[in-house]
Amino acid sequence: FDLTDKMVWSKAVKDSAGLAEFHEKNKAKYMWTERCQTTVYECSDAATAGEVLKMISKKKRPAEDELIKTMNKESQLKLKIEHHKFTKGEQKTLDSLGWKPGISPVISIDKKHMIFEVEKILPPEVKTLQECRGVATADYQNSLEAEWIAGLRNKYPVSIDREALNAIR
């Protein structure tokens, strides 16, 4: 166990240069599917959602911080804005709207009123090491273990004495 920890598990975690090289060599394995870059406006009530929709639909729309400042004068809970990159199937409401750039109508979900603004559709691309660190580390550990075992087999060839094996049976 200690030897495996030293040669495989800890090595993969500590060897950041080796992990980066492994990721680079195997980057086709770590890909995002098509995604959409989306801004989600979450409003506490329908009136706020209607106002937000009007403001973001204008040609000359307010900056995001200005919009939050204006809408959250009375309460910090009236408007929350988040930016996400969604893959298909990750956000059911967004999937039902279709993946087209633009602003959705106000949608009520669990007493929240939301507006989805699809900014652009992102083509499939390679995940950065940060985005897939856990999976890449596990794959790197498997690779290190396979190399280690192959090296041990080359250094210490295994031969089975069939006569002795049969005598045991």
What is the straight-line distance between the termini? 30 Å
SSE class: alpha+beta
Individual helix count: 7
Please estimate the helix content.
40-55%
Order of helices and strands: HHEEHHEHEEEEHH
Anisotropy-based shape: elongated
Question: What's the total count of β strands?
Answer: 7
What is the typical, i.e. mean, pLDDT?
92
Instruction: Using the CA coordinates, give the radius of gyration.
Output: 27 Å
Described by strand count, sense and barrel closure, the largest sheet is:
5 strands, antiparallel
Low-pLDDT segments, ≥5 res: none
- The amount of beta strand, in percent, is 15-25%
Short description:
This protein has helices at 2-14, 16-25, 46-57, 64-71, 92-97, 133-155, 162-168, and strands at residues 31-32, 35-43, 79-87, 102-103, 107-109, 112-122, 125-126. By secondary structure, the protein is an alpha+beta fold.
SSE layout and pairing:
Elements: H1 2-14, H2 16-25, E1 31-32, E2 35-43, H3 46-57, H4 64-71, E3 79-87, H5 92-97, E4 102-103, E5 107-109, E6 112-122, E7 125-126, H6 133-155, H7 162-168
Helix pairs in contact: 1-6
